[in-house]
Amino acid sequence: MINKISTNNYKPGLDIDFVKKKYNLKKVIKLASNENPLGPSKSALKILEKSKDNINRYPDGRCDDLKKEITRFISKSFIKPDNIVIGNGSSEILELVAKAFLSDKSEVVFSKHSFIVYKLVSNFMNAKIRESKLITNKSKNFMSSDLDDMKRKITQKTRVIFLANPANPTGALLSYEAIDKFISTLSKRIIIVIDEAYIEYACMLGHKSCIDLIQKYKNIIITRSFSKIYALAGVRIGYGLASKEIVSKLNNKRQPFNVNQIAQQMAIKSLDDKKFLINSLNDYVMCREYLTKELDKLDLQYIDSYANFITINFGRSTRTVFNQLLRSGIILRPLDNYNLSSYLRLTIGTLKECRAFITSLSEILGKTNV
Ligand SMILES: Cc1ncc(COP(=O)(O)O)c(C=O)c1O
Fold this sequence. Notes:
Blueprint: H1 16-23, E1 29-30, H2 42-50, H3 64-74, E2 84-87, H4 90-101, E3 107-111, H5 116-124, E4 128-132, H6 147-152, E5 158-164, H7 176-184, E6 191-195, H8 199-204, H9 213-216, E7 220-225, E8 238-241, H10 244-251, H11 261-272, H12 274-297, E9 301-302, E10 309-313, H13 319-327, E11 330-331, E12 333-334, E13 343-347, H14 351-364
């Protein structure tokens, strides 16, 4: 794992057109960047056409309408517009946290193999990074954050903890109760970011968001993304929820027009489209079940995932299998830059895409798909 990382060494999933050209393929399936394969809500898409008329105007820098819609959507008395900060993707909120709370004199704690942006934004501020262990015994919590070890990494200089729930690239989840207990033991001067970019999938599987903890602790920030279940990765929009005081500090660190008008409007329409959300989540459950059954048949070990991807352990370098999959027109995500070189991350696509993946993988592994 590179200790100092910059945007120049961030490795996104391969591009479909690039793979088509390189391998002379007509059809390529991308299961590499945890996007919703169904695309955005139809009512959100209509905004693209409508927006043509006012594209010369600056957006609403305060994102008032979107904040109202988020308040309505979350429907908790303690979440008001003043408790919300909107970002150019939830990655921007992570960056605002770093700008507001980290410096070269402070420390930040997160788990090994955490979402790479935590390292990136901490490096922007030259803060010292302390990485805690994951649980690696083959328990139910395999590859989830070891909160006891995280506590051991805290010092007098710790200002921020980043905790993704579910985590990327592992998909592992911590329970609401475990997070609550963990935070209750920490100093109030530490800001705890609970990154819920994939929370909708975990909730669909019966788990609980940590939003209620905002009422209990003034030092936490929940971040949410429109890039995953809402399929708006391309327009870049996400949000953070926290106490008014924290939100004000984060707002002080952002540009006045950080979120474009199209993204704001598309996000509003997406939150309002319950049918879209339910359809996407039902498909997710069906495809997740299909994939886990098939991976079991292939005798492959994978991390129990609560997000829209499954991280598979091939027990050896994945370079060969990754390249063979590419040749058959399927893009997965290698995890070498997460120091997980025996794992590939598979985004849960449509049933058709998942079937194509299993067929190719079975052929590559020399087994038949029965
Ligand atoms: C755990 C986690 N948090 C946050 C993000 C950032 O999402 P975005 O900036 O697109 O909202 C991602 C994206 O992959 C992620 O995996």
